[in-house]
Amino acid sequence: MLEVDHMLDRLTNWIKQNLLNRTRRLREEAFEIKHHIVEIEGESYFVAQAMFPDIPEILGVERAVYDGLTPWDRTAFANELRRKSDRLYLVIRKNDQLIGFIGASFDDRLKQAHITNVAVLPDFQNRGLGAFLIEAIIKKAQFIEYRTLTLEVRRSNHNAQALYLKIGFEKVGVKERYYFGDHEDAIDMSLDLSKWRGGYHGNK
Questions:
Q1: Catalytic amino acids?
Q2: What is the pLDDT of residues 156-179, one digit of tens each?
Q3: What range defines the domain where residue 148 resides?
């Protein structure tokens, strides 16, 4: 009986390891980003994977969005960009100006991705860019065969919450006093990737 149990354990471990290896291969393929031109609501933009030289402009977007503050500093972004195996950051440009970015972490064992940052310059908001960036991460996570995509949003940020709900996220909880500085609550939101079929603005 012990020998049978041992064989079952070995078989179970082998299956788990092979599934993880498959997920890892899919993630590596998904992270091979080709710089390309995209069209969003009739306008052309350039999308690329974030690189270290982009960090000053990313911080500039943060300052513009968060009233001169940078919730994440240069070191934090640099540390994220170094983690090439489980982090993906994308930037979007218009006429060579970095106007928005998104970042996400990927957990193969939980089969879950988490949006860590997303921001678009105020002058370029309400043009479908935030939705495009979020959908880019959704499609990557679906390709890797993940189950869920999660994020946090400030309780007071009703516009962002409305966008996330429209994309398909659901409110699943609250992190009290989550944000550094003002200690505002965060709303936890989650997207079931197995059910997501749509595009917010129809740009595939």
A1: 152, 164
A2: 999 999 999 999 999 999 999 888
A3: 2-192
